[in-house]
Amino acid sequence: MARVDLTHHLYQFFPQLNGKTIEVPGSTIGDVIQGLETLAPGIGFYVCDERGRLRQHVNIYIGEERVSDRTTLTDLVAPQSRVLIVQALSGG
Amino acid sequence: MTHTVLLGTRKGTFFIEKIAGRWRPRLVGHAGVGVNFFDRDPTTGTYWAALGHGHWGAKLSRSTDGGVTWKDAPQIRYPEGSRHYMPPPPSETGPGEGAPTLKDATLLKLWVMAFGPAGQIFVGTIPGGLFVSRDGGENFELNRPLWNHESRGGDLFAGTGNGTTKWYGTPAAEGEFAPGIHSIAVDPKNPKRILVAISTAGVFESLDGGNSWRVRNKGLTMDYSPDPTAEWAGHDPHALVLCPAQPNHVWQQNHCGVFTSSDSAASWRKVSHPHQGVHFGFPVAVDDADGRTAWVVPGVADSHRTAINGALFVAHTKDGGESWEQLRQGLPQEHAYDVVYRHALAIQGDLLAFGSTTGNVYVSEDRGHRWQAVANNLPPVYSVRIR
Questions:
Q1: DSSP A37-89
Q2: Neighboring chain B residues of A90 at a CB cutoff of 8 Å
Q3: Among B55, B72, B104, beta carbon nearest to A55
Q4: What is the pLDDT of residues B281-290, one digit of tens each?
Q5: Chain B: closest CA distance from residue A54 (Å)
Q6: N or C: which end of chain A has fewer CB within 10 A?
Q7: Under CATH, to which class is A2-87 assigned?
Q8: ipTM attached to this prediction
Q9: Chain centroid to CA B22: how far?
Q10: What is the pLDDT of residues B151-164, one digit of tens each?
Q11: Residue from B33, B51, B55 to probe the interface with A (highest A Cβ count within 10 Å)
């Protein structure tokens, strides 16, 4: 089970996740998003577009490494991985 | 009957209500979030807000308890296989760079909503999608006849179509140069007649409930085209409205002037009066009963998007644009740089309201003759409706 942390911003839209330890099964980032969608229906469309691609201004980290496959979300997640989903900062 | 002014702003959703004789704004939802459009479905009473979250994409939000609580609605998604030809950005149209590129469609922006007399909910989007719900907003479906229109390349679900598009883009696409549907008008006397206006393609009309569409650009002029009157000159209506009681009367505030039609958009007539400041702007409102009576809020020009001479006014015609009157009473007449966006002027009976990019909201209860500022320092106002 991967442990998932979300940017504070996302908890505003999905308060049912706030204050909870989020753990989801799966071996890829795509699996993690599916697991999150089960816990909080609708969150997948916040993180990804309707083609399943990571939104342009969203980043996902596995540990301290940013995921490399933003299109099909195949980056591998280990059972003890920490996954962090945040909005990308692009200056300003 | 007491009306409420509904505001969608860059930082939230507001009501403006008349309480004890005074109009007062009230934040009712989506604090900090961009609200491109906010309206009430007259059939169900549900309030709808079209949100632009920035990082998290475009989302529909709705309230069934008068704006007390809000929830995400079933979301609009472009169906699998929907593709479109992206026009080349204007800066990249040099030799060899002008070919459109085929691209998967994903939702960039929810821009406008409209409600049909049979309970339909229409949503105009970027890139150039018309979505329709016939079940109160539980499911939205892309209107494929318009999406697959030959002017856009044909049926790109099935193949590569004719390889080109006559729909150009809008900077409102937020990051991409894609076309957008910003105006949807349903004829209350004939619900199968639907008009849409597109930046940048012009006006389309359906007479069969959306099963087929024809272009309605005859009479428009596009100052920046080698052939300004061509059907596909890149016409850029900024807003389109029709008169509910006389739906053959249609108006548009266009990038290149104010245009009106008295023959159901079959032909347009330019009724700009630049010497009176009536030319460039974004919104237009038409009277509920009289199709020759309309209001616009002019700006200087596309290259100079501010109030004219620092003084804000509403221009009003009662004769189909033959003559215009400048209505200034109660509006700031110095140091005003307000611009009024395409959805930010509304009329209901004698009540008119508009909101500006500088967060000012003005209301008139006598058809525009006297105005009062009912809010200042709000976020930039994107939409104003009166319900």
A1: HHHSTTHHHHHB-TTSPBPTTEEEEETTEEPS-TTT---B--TT-EEEEEEPP
A2: none
A3: B55
A4: 999 999 999 9
A5: 10
A6: C
A7: alpha beta
A8: 0.93
A9: 29
A10: 999 999 989 999 98
A11: B55
